[in-house]
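To assess whether the prediction recovers the assembly geometry, we first specified each molecular entity separately, as shown.
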Amino acid sequence: MRQLKNDRVGLTWQPQLAAAILAAGDRIDLVEVIPEGTFLESPRAHRALRRLGREIPVAIHGVSLGLASTSAVDERRLGQFARLIDDVQPDCWSEHLAFVRAGGIELGHLAAPSRTPTTIDATALNIDRAARAIGGYPLVENVATIIEPPGSDLDEQTWLRRLLATSQADLLLDLHNLYANARNFGFSAADALRSLPPERIRVIHLAGGAPVRASTGDERWLDDHLHDVPDPVYALLEIVGESVPHAVDVVLERDGAFPPFGQLLDQLDRARAALARGRTRRMAA
Amino acid sequence: MSPAFESFLARLYVERPARERFLADPHGEAAAAGLTADEIAAAVGIDRVGLELAAASFAHKRRRQRRFAHPVVRLWRELAKRVG
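The predicted structure of the complete assembly is given in tokenized form:
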């Protein structure tokens, strides 16, 4: 990822929002595109993304490589991704610290790996494979999980810190994922954030979620990207502004239940303001 | 943890009958999957609330993906289902 001079704030590209995003002018600094299915394979889609990149900085965000797996990442998928990155030349590319398939079963979503030394080593190997195939290291994203990952003997922050110490990949820190996991499993998201190496945090994700209830009556918080960013996540963004020494990109993820576009822009403004408050504290310290 | 353990979890997350068999006999199902003693212990101690909610969430995501898939992809999937 190239070095940024200033913090930037943007959102996930959605076809339904395309016209509004392009009309929003200087209120959106970048867009993040999730290139799956035909979007990943089609030269026409690649050309469209390249054109989009001339209008506004583009980041590519993968969801299907399954880097955090004890099995080797699929070479065919890496090849597709490499062609896409080569064609589009995005500002950066990223992928999740999750497994998405195993034993021939496609989960259709992101599953948190068991947090063990074995999965750290296997994930670092997969990140290296991806970097070789694509020609640059991804940013790797912490995932939300609604189930305590079975077989774990490390907590999430220790697993992340050790992975970052083992790998050259920097961190895409999803603050809502951190918030959801903290809420579900009883730890402090702020303390967890402060325990991560700030010099390795490059991009921030913001999103919203909602409570879901099991048949037992137990409630957990689901990262669904269908709700507004909750207040505690902006508070975490202030900590980022205070602790991270370099400029970062902040991306609002919204996948559906879209409010009027002005409300999304308002959330970007709130993110800018939270980050600026943190930057001010950092300057004063 | 091994690829076998990941496959075991993937089956629990995605396949309702496998999940029901597991919840009825966690140790037996984990042992039958060829897991190590540590992995069997991890499976037996699984976060059951999380398993229920994760399975529901994964199912919802897969339904959503199918709904938004390209029409040609949907057609192929339908044909594949009919062929069996």
